[in-house]
Amino acid sequence: MGSDSRSFFSATRAMGYPDLFSMVNQPEEGILPYLNGQINPNHNYSAYLDEQDMKDLSAFLSGGLTLPELIADWNTFQVQGTLEVGELNFQEYCSSCHGIEGEKINLNTAQNPVFLGDMAWSNPWRIAHNIRFGHPQTRIPPANLLGLSFSQQIDILAYTQTLPNALQIVAPEYLAIDFDLQASTEPLVFGALSIGTLIVIATWYTLKRQE
Q1: Could you say which DSSP state residue 110 is in?
Q2: Reduced to 3 states, what is the DSSP secondary structure of residue 36?
Q3: In this predicted model, what pLDDT tens digit does every residue of 94-140 receive, in sequence order?
Q4: Measured distance CA(192)–CA(110) in Å, rounded
Q5: How large is the angle between the packed helices 51-63 and 28-35, nearest 10 degrees?
Q6: Residues 6+ away with beta carbon under 8 Å from 124
Q7: Residue 148 — φ and ψ, nearest 5°?
Q8: Residues linked to residue 44 through DSSP beta bridges, in sequence order
Q9: Are 23 and 31 within 8 A, CB to CB?
Q10: Torsion of CA 9, 141, 96, 137, to 10 degrees
Q11: How far is CA 13 from CA 78, 132, 153, in A?
Q12: Considering only CA atoms, which of 78, 79, 75 is closest in space to residue 14?
């Protein structure tokens, strides 16, 4: 368990807008008054969102939000998922950027590194959000565009909690090699065999001449 890394996001993991989750599965027409200032004039987005935008946002708040407890246990941060399925999907969709062990991208600073394995324990809800909706200005696509169900997304999240944390990755003895990115060794093997053959022939020829 990556409990050592939780403190990095301990101050930000709490949901800052708990009332939003009360809107899950509520009628969209009942959510609109919260957005257009009818309930609170100081909470009016009409100057920024047109009528269709309001309806789209209401639809998302009603049917797009996911209750936090469906993602991870609020007390232990543990994610319940099928690790085998999560590993397969992680290697297919995530490892090209994050690395096969989540070691390629440092999400914080060099002095205080944070890798995917750390983040999965520190704030699994944030990782779930990125998996589900993608991330602006990055190569992370929304999961629905990849055809991944909510269950498969949770499987990926559960698998990321098995990845090494920053303390393990920056340790001198850690060595993550992506063999798919390594050069082919066949030319080296054939070259070594050729050199060995030449040495044998040269040795044999030298001994024959000495006779």
Answers
A1: S
A2: strand
A3: 999 999 999 999 989 989 999 999 999 999 999 999 999 988 777 78
A4: 40
A5: 120
A6: 71, 72, 77, 79, 157, 161
A7: -90, 125
A8: 36
A9: yes
A10: -70
A11: 14, 17, 19
A12: 75
Please identify which residue in the block is written with the tokens 């639809």.
59
DSSP class of 120: H
6-41: pLDDT as tens digits: 444 443 445 556 678 888 889 999 999 999 999 999
Q: Do 57 and 65 form a contact (C-beta atoms < 8 A)?
A: no
What tokens does 163 get? 């990845």
The DSSP 8-state label assigned to residue 44 in this structure reads B
* First CA to last CA distance, the chain: 71
Q: Which amino acid is at 179?
A: F
Q: How confident is the model at residue 208 (pLDDT cuts 50, 70, 90)?
A: low
Give the pair of three-digit tokens for residue 92.
């297919």
